[in-house]
Amino acid sequence: MFKPRIKIVGYRSEEKITEREGQEEIIKQNHFVANGDISITHINYVAHKNFTLFLLKLPSSLDIMA
């Protein structure tokens, strides 16, 4: 099975976010994601719009409907 990929666009931030900070925020806001479940593959900060774009992978066994 393949790992599902998710694109998060428009995460409001005043400055660049590190991969660790991004993971912590995603985990904090989603009860079904545990530490280590996600891997961020790309982060892009758009300075003139003050937002961050994340591309991440989730394990294929993750049940997001729980």
What does it look like?
- The protein is α+β, with helices and mostly antiparallel strands and 66 residues long.
- The chain has one domain (5-57).
- It is 17% helix and 35% strand.
- It contains one helix and three strands, in the order βαββ.
- The protein has one helix at 19-29, and strands at residues 5-12, 39-46, 51-57.
- Strands 1-3-2 form a three-stranded antiparallel β-sheet, covered by helices on one side.
- The protein is globular.
- It starts with a strand and ends in a 9-residue tail after the last strand.
- The mean pLDDT is 81.
Describe what is shown at a glance:
The protein is α+β, with helices and mostly antiparallel strands. It has one helix at 19-29; strands at 5-12, 39-46, 51-57.
Give short descriptive properties of this protein.
alpha+beta, three-stranded antiparallel sheet, 66 residues, 35% strand
